[in-house]
Design a protein that fits this description.
This protein has one domain: Up-down Bundle (Amino acid/polyamine transporter I). The chain is an all-alpha fold. The longest helix has 34 residues. Helix content is 76%, strand content 1%. β1 and β2 form a beta hairpin. α8 packs antiparallel against α16 and α17 runs antiparallel to α19. The chain is globular. It has a two-stranded antiparallel sheet.
C-alpha cells in the first residue's frame, strides 16, 4: 500500500466524482435518442431495471475491489489473487482507458471549438444545411482539431496535477452541481416552448410494440456502459475511499444520479426539437447541428446553446478525469512519489493517440483498420469488445474468486436486512450479470 495515500475528503466528494465519471457522452447525446426510437418510456423502464439489477451489482463489485485493496486496478488483482493471471483484467482496463481517451479527447475538443464559435457568434442564423457543412469543415480542419484536442488534454492535466482531493474532487464539487443546474434551466426553458408536450410524449410515452429483442439488448448494454464499469475506473476511485463509507448506498446513489441525468437530457432536448419540427439525432449531429439549429430560432437562443455546450464539456471532463486517473494510479503503485512524472507520461501517450484520431475525418480519413477510421476503431474496440470483457471478468472475479467473508466484511454491517441484500447482490453478480454481459457482447459483435 502506498504511504501517505490520498483519500476523498467526504462521501459526497466521492459520489460526485464517481457519478461524474459515469455521466458522459452517452447520457447526453445517445441515450435520449435511443430511448425515443426504441420504445420510449417502455425502453427507459427496461433500462432502469437493468441498471439496478445488472449495472449496479458490477459497479458495487468494483467499489469493493478498490477499497479493499487501496490500490490501482492492476495491483488490486495482484493483491487479491497473487501469482495468477487475474491482473490482466486490470491491464485490459488500462488499455481500454487509453483507447477511449483517444476519441473522447477529440470530442471534448469539438465541444471547446463550438463554445468558442457560440461566443463569437459564428453559429447564429445558420440553417441545418449550413451547420452540417460547418461541422464537416471544422472536424476536417487539422489545425483547429489538433489545437482543441490538446487544449482539452491540457485542462485534464491541470486538474489531475493537483491530485485526488485538490484536483478531481474539487473540480467535481462544482462541475457536477453546475451540470444539474444547467440541465434544469434547459428543461424549464424547453417545456415553455410551443408543442413541448408533444416532444415529452414522443420521448417517454411507452411504446411496447417498438420494444424488440434488439432494443432490450440495447437497454442491457447501455445499463452497464452508462455506469462506466469494466475499465477499472470505479476500482481506482474507490481505492481512495475511507473505511466508514457504506458502499451499497454510494453505488445506488451513483446509479440513480445517472438515470436522472439520462432522463433530464431527453426532457431538455425533445420538447425543443418538436417545437421547431427538427428531427433529433444521436451523436455529434445532435450537439453540433440539431441543437444550434433549434436555438437559432428563439430569442436569446445562443445563450441556451452555450449553456448546453458548457454542460456537455463538463460531462466530458468529469468522465475523462476518471479515464486518465486509471493508468496514472496503476503506474503510481511502484513509484508513489512520482505522480507528476507519471501523469506527464500518461498525458504524452494519450496525446500521441488522440492527435491522429482527431485527423481521422480529415487528412487521415484514408487510414482505416477493418474498414473503420481511427476514431471509429478506437470507439468500436473499447465500447464493443474491451468494455464487455472487462465487466464480465470483474463480475466473475468478485463473484467466484474473492472469499465470501471478505466481501461480507467490506460491504455489510450488523442487521439481517443488509445480509439479505448482500446475498441477493452476490447471486446477481455470480450468475445473472455474467450471462447478461455475455449476451450484450454477442449483440455488439453482431452475432445476436
Amino acid at each position: 500500500m502506498q504511504t501517505n495515500r490520498e483519500q476523498w475528503t467526504s462521501k459526497l466528494g466521492f459520489i460526485l466524482s464517481a457519478a461524474g465519471s459515469a455521466i458522459g457522452l452517452g447520457a447526453l447525446w445517445k441515450m435520449p435518442y435511443v430511448t425515443a426510437n426504441a420504445g420510449g418510456g417502455a425502453f427507459f423502464l427496461i433500462f432502469a431495471i437493468f441498471t439496478i439489477f445488472i449495472g449496479l451489482p458490477v459497479l458495487l463489485g468494483e467499489f469493493v475491489i478498490g477499497r479493499k485493496t487501496q490500490s490501482g486496478t492492476i495491483s488490486a488483482y495482484q493483491k487479491l489473487a497473487p501469482n495468477t493471471k487475474w491482473d490482466w483484467t486490470g491491464r485490459i482496463g488500462v488499455i481500454t482507458c487509453f483507447l477511449i481517451l483517444a476519441f473522447y479527447c477529440v470530442v471534448g475538443g469539438w465541444a471547446l471549438l463550438y463554445i468558442w464559435k457560440a461566443v463569437t457568434g459564428a453559429l447564429q442564423g445558420l440553417s441545418v444545411g449550413a451547420l452540417t457543412d460547418l461541422f464537416v469543415t471544422t472536424s476536417n480542419d487539422p489545425l483547429q482539431v489538433i489545437l482543441a484536442t490538446v487544449i482539452f488534454i491540457a485542462i485534464n492535466l491541470f486538474v489531475l496535477l493537483n491530485g485526488i482531493t485538490a484536483g478531481i474532487e474539487r473540480a467535481n464539487r462544482w462541475m457536477m452541481p453546475a451540470l444539474f443546474i444547467f440541465l434544469l434551466i434547459l428543461i424549464v426553458y424547453s417545456l415553455t416552448l410551443p408543442n413541448a408536450m408533444d416532444g415529452v410524449s414522443y420521448f417517454l410515452q411507452p411504446k411496447f410494440d417498438d420494444l424488440t429483442s434488439d432494443a432490450i439488448l440495447q437497454a442491457l448494454g447501455q445499463s452497464f456502459f452508462s455506469l462506466a464499469v469494466g475499465v477499472g475506473g470505479m476500482i481506482t476511485y474507490a481505492s481512495y475511499l475511507k473505511r466508514d463509507v457504506f458502499l451499497p448506498s454510494s453505488a445506488l446513489t451513483v446509479a440513480l444520479m445517472n438515470l436522472l441525468i439520462s432522463l433530464f437530457a431527453g426532457l431538455a432536448i425533445f420538447p425543443a426539437a418538436f417545437s421547431f419540427g427538427i428531427e433529433p439525432q444521436a451523436g455529434p449531429g445532435l450537439l453540433f447541428i440539431v441543437l444550434p439549429a433549434i436555438f437559432n430560432q428563439v430569442p436569446f437562443g445562443i445563450v441556451f446553446l452555450l449553456l448546453f455546450l458548457v454542460l456537455f464539456l463538463f460531462a466530458a471532463l468529469t468522465s475523462s478525469f476518471n479515464l486518465f486517473e486509471v493508468p496514472v494510479t496503476a503506474f503510481l503503485e511502484k513509484r508513489p512519489a512520482a505522480r507528476k512524472r507519471v501523469l506527464l507520461i500518461v498525458v504524452a501517450i494519450v496525446t500521441l493517440l488522440a492527435v491522429p484520431t482527431s485527423l481521422s475525418t480529415g487528412v487521415l480519413s484514408d487510414v482505416t483498420i477493418f474498414g473503420k477510421n481511427l476514431f471509429g476503431i478506437a470507439d468500436y474496440l473499447s465500447s464493443n469488445i474491451l468494455l464487455p470483457i472487462g465487466a464480465f471478468l470483474i463480475a466473475i472475479f468478485v463473484g467466484f474468486r474473492m472469499p465470501r467473508q471478505m466481501l461480507l466484511d467490506e460491504i455489510t454491517s450488523d442487521g439481517a436486512f443488509r445480509f439479505k441484500l448482500f446475498a441477493t447482490w452476490l447471486l446477481l453478480l455470480k450468475y445473472i450479470c455474467p450471462v447478461a454481459i455475455f449476451l450484450v457482447f454477442l449483440q455488439q459483435l453482431g452475432i445476436l
